[in-house]
Structures are given as structure tokens and as C-alpha cells.
Amino acid sequence: MGKKKNSSIMKTEARDAWIMMAPAIIVLSVVAVYPIIRTVWLSLHEMVLTDPGSGYPFIGIKNYIAIFKDKRALESIAFTLKFTVTTVVFELLIGFTAALIMNKPFKGKGVVRAAILIPWAIPTSVSAMMWKFIYNDQYGLFNDILLRFGIIDKYKAWLSTADGSFMALVITDVWKTAPYMALLILAGLQMIPEELYEAAEIDGASVFQKFFYVTLPTVKTTVLVALLFRTLDAFRVFDLISVMTGGANGTESVSVYTYNHLMKFLDFGYGSAMAMMIFVVVFIISLIYMRVLGDQITDR
Amino acid sequence: MKKKMWKRVAALAAASIMTLSLAGCGSGSDAGTSGDAGNAENTESAAGAENVENPAEDTEVVQADGGEKIILKFSFDQGVGEPTQKIVDKFNASQDKIQVETVILPQDANTVHDDFVNKLASGDTSVDIMGLDVVYVAEFASAGWLADLSGYLGSDITDQMLAGTVEAATYDGKLVAAPWFTNSSVMFYRQDVLEELNEEVPTTWEGWMALADKAVGVNGIEYGADFQAAQSEALVTNWVEYVWSNGGDILDENGMPVINSEQNVEATEIMKKLVDEYAPEGVTTYTETESEQVFKEGKCLFIRDWSGFWTSGQGDDSKVTGKIAATKLPVGPSGTESHTCLGGLDLVVNNNIDDTQKEAAGEFIKFMTSEETQKEMTLISSQPPVIKAVYSDAEILEAIPFYSDFFGIIEGGKSRPKSPRYAKVSDAIQRNIHQAMTGEMEVKAALDALQAEVEELSK
User: Cβ contacts (< 8 Å) between A139 and chain B: which residues?
Assistant: First the structure.
């Protein structure tokens, strides 16, 4: 009897919960779910806006098959993966180091923590313009510094070669987002109770042992979350490349290529298929991270 | 456990959806890529410019006799914002039936294009008249977005215009755009250096290269050449000029590509030689802004640039003010005539608006393309007019003496290939020619690849 009453309360609660969630669900379906479904739908059609005579027929998964035959699409995927792995690795190393330093008590800690966020706060297209000028072959600061240190013997046009462009893009992206990584990891570091270090010290642990047996296991989850965010972001890189190289010298990312199809060539069918493909890849990356992360969370 | 798993996937899906929608937002922040399609005044950075609606928009407009005025929305980029606003104000004051309101877009060819596409593709009628870059006319017309203007601009008007501009505004035999102002490139060179060396102005590329060999070191000259070879629309406008001025072409009269011809290979090799031996090392990363900066520093013998540089290149920030002169682009060894690449803006009318609006838009366009308005626009904006008579107008020649020579240059101007798939053609040119310039591909191989790509597009 009591059980039944209990379940009816639960039912009412469930109903109330749905009512309260309704506005959020409606908003989400309008602004997120609908566009996605629409994109899927468009990706199954041949739809080039400059060719209305075609009648935009339904062509099934032909657009998706075309992606795998499109050398440029595959190259852009390869470039994007290379870019993602390189930048994320550097950001992790630099971000982690910076976080460890900032976690130590020193004078002006607050100022440093605020200052380190500046690159992250500048809009990407603005910092991309700024860095484009830094790499300029006539006036660039980058050339000036390298020349003064004797690393190069004359000014170079860094953005005019494939290797130079890749390096320039990676440096810019790392400069911009390593601080973000650092702050996230710093937050994780601050959650480690001081007692753990004290206990380790009493047991006679060295600095390295403390790092590997206390710090690392405790911040692992935070680091993984930070990595997840950065990986997804790096994979969708757009503004940086669009401004700095425009996709020249083999630096066309998947997002830039997709944008070209959608907005420049007005090929909504193929462009939507590319967009869906980005979605799927991003989903897979998330899934991999979530598997690792999920075990962490559920094991607790 | 199963349920938990399901929840996790659902949460993940929601998260991915959010990131994907963010990806969508990202495409808007394209400001700064100078996707300049031949609009000389468009070269400055687009950053900071927002859609600015005319404040006059909210004020209620009532005609003198109590009837409502027809309101037209006119959208164009900020590059010509101020002078155009003045002309529009004058039109509004000149009659009491039509009220034109301006919607000013950021000064960036790509942003403007995307804004128009978004509106027109969804059948939006919030804008009636647009200032559209000439290269997009065919694309918009083939999508059925542009109203036929033949009824408003008869041959009596179009005959007064530069033939090349009218040709570029015609699609499928219909006049789908009204030439508003045009643009063409010019060879700006350092008069002081030529005087110092006591040399004549060369008319061929060989001549310029020979001169450049002597000029380096004179009056601070470090580079023999300066132009735009970044992978962008600017590269297309540069390259087609080498091709045309060497007797070559992109498409033949039937619209079939003739890209890997001998003349074109020769023309491209000249350009490559300039990149390798004469231009600043970073020329393959230069659009207009970067190339102009180096020239204004006084480091280059010449710059190929849009006509507007005559004024913008001799401002307070320039070290070459008063030292430059302009001439025709040089011809190649197999060419006889020099051809510049035409740019500029056309006025187009949204095909979705009703007939009364179209009628009114026709009136406004007639006003904009009249000799009187064209002259005034030229005086306040230094944009080259499309009405031929303006070039020989005494008042104009007094203000811009350079126009007497310029008329000959602009008359020989050609338009980039007219195709509804121009964006793809341009993209193919940009990629392949850029690879040829950076040396990643042999010139001949790049042109063969380009030929194959454009053949594929012409099917």
C-alpha cells in the first residue's frame, strides 16, 4: 500500500520534472536539434543553389560516398588530425607546466593568473591577424627575434611554405589556448588536499614520486576533460586558418573546406555531408574520451 | 547499467550538438581574410565593421499628400559607405515617392557575399537593392535571385557605359545588374627612379625586368616588382592579366577552358620569374594590403594595384607621395595588347520583391547610373565611373588628372570568366596557380591540373 503511494508521488514528480524541463527542451530542439536534422536531410540531396534547374533531387548517401573519393577532403582531414594532435600535445605540456608553476605560492600570483588568460581572451580572428603580421617577411617580429639570436641569416616569409605555415599555425594556436589548458589544470591541482603531500613527505617521497603518485592520479580527470575540450576545438579549427593562410600551402582544415562548399560554392548538399562528417568525427573523439573518463567517474 | 550507458550517450550527443552549433557560429568570424574581388577600396581590414543600419530607418515616412512612400532597402559594403550615403540622401530629397534606406555591411567581399546569399537563398525580402561585386553576378543570376533590369535600363543608357561593364552585367542575354562603378588595375611605378636612371617607361615584361635589374639599390629600391600572389581572389585578378596580356585566355568563345595553352604557360612563367627573382620573398602571402605597405615604404620599383591606390598610396603614411606615376600593364612576349582585370560593384535587385518595389528600384537605379550622379560619385569617392563621358569631363580631369590616361586602360579591361560556378573556377585557379608560384608544382603541371579541373566544372 505504502509502496503504491510512493510510486504515485514519484509519478507526479516525474511529470513535474518534465513540465519544468519543457522550456529548455523546446529551446534546444529549435536551436540545436532542428538544424542538425535539417543538415542531415540536406546532406542526402543534390543541392547546389546556383543550379535550381536540378530540382534538388534526393540522392541518398551519394554525397557521403563522394567525400571518400574527394582527394582534397581526405587531405583536409589528414591535415586537421595532424594539427589537432600537434597542438593538443604542446598545449598539454605547456599548460601543465604553467599550472604547476602557478600552483606554487609566490608573490603576484593573482596578477600572473589573470595575465596568462589574455591570449585566450582575444578573439581568434584578431589574434590571427596579429600573428600574421608577426610572421610578415618585411616587418615581422618573429624574423627580428630569430635574426638577433642568429638562428636565421635573413628575413623569411614563414607563411609562404607548407612547413612554415604549419609551424606558424601551431605556434599561434598553442599561444592562444595553452593558457586555457593551464587554468583548467590549475583548478584541478588546487583540489588536491595538502595532507596528501604531507603524508607522502613523511613517507619520504621525492619530488618526482610526489608528482607521479599524488599529483598525476588526482588531476587525471581534470586533465582528460581539458583534453577533450581542446581536441574538439582544435579539430574544428576555422578562423585561425581562414585569416592566416586562407587554406594555402596545404593548410586547409576540414572546417575551412566545408565552409568553402557551403558558403562559397553554395553546394549545400555536399557541404552538409561534410558538416555531418565533422559531427561524426567529433562524436567519435568524444566517445573515446568519455570511455576513459566515464570509467574514472563511475569507478569512484 | 544499461540505462546509465544510454544516459551517457545522450549527454554526449547533447554536448556534441552544442559544439556543432558552435562550429556554425565560427564561420561568421571570417572578418579579415581579404577576399577582395577587385574592389580597390576594399583592401583595408574589415575588422570592427558591423552591420550598421541607418538610424533614419525607424522614423516614419509619410508622403506629403498623406500616402505612404515606397521604402527601398539598399545594402552595400562600408568601403563606399559615406559617399553612397550622400548620393542616397540626394535621391531621397529629389523626389517624394520613394524613400531609400541604407543597410551598410562590413568592408569585406566575402562577408558581403555570404550576407546576400543567406538572405536571397531563404527568399527574404528585407533588402531590395544590393551593391554586388561583379564576379558574383553570374552566380546570383543563375540561382534566379536577380530581377531582370532590361525594362529599366534601355540600350540608350547602356550604350553610354563602358562595354566591358555592361557585358559583365548580362547573363543569359538578360541585363540582370546595373554597372555602378568599375575598377581596373594599373602599373604604378617610381617616377623618381626612372628619372634617376634616365630610362623610358617599359611596355613589356622583359623591359620591366631589365629595368628592375638596374633599379635595385637606386633611391632605396630593394625589390624589382610588387603585386598580389596570396592564395586569394587577388591572385586570380593578377594571373588573368598575365594571361590576357600574352594573347592567352581562360575560356574560349564557347566557354570551354583553354588554360594549358603555350601562351598561358609562358605568361605564368613570367609571373613565376617575378615571384622568384624580383618580388619580396613573401609575395605569395600578399593580398593588396601587404603589397601596398611594402611599396609605400619605398622599397619597390613598381606595384600592380587597383586604380584607387593613386590616392590611398600617396597619403601621409606613405614615403612615395609625389614620386609615383601610372601606366598600362606590360604585355608579354606573345601578346600585343595589355588587358587589365575589371572589378567594381553592380547594382542588383532582389527578384523576390513585388512589382511596385521593383518599379521603384528601377527608378533609383536610373538615378544612380545617370551621368550627373556618376560624376558626383566619382568626385566624392574616386571610384571609376561606368559612364564613358565622365572620363572626359573637365571638372573630373581637374580633380583626377590621371583619368585621361586611365580611360584607355579601363577600356581595354576584360572581365573574369563568367560562370555560375565562378567560385569554383576561382578556387581552382587560386590553388593551382599558388602552387605554381610557391614552386610546389611545375608551371606546366599546374596549368594541366587547372585545365582538367575547369573542364570538369564546364561539363
Answer: 293
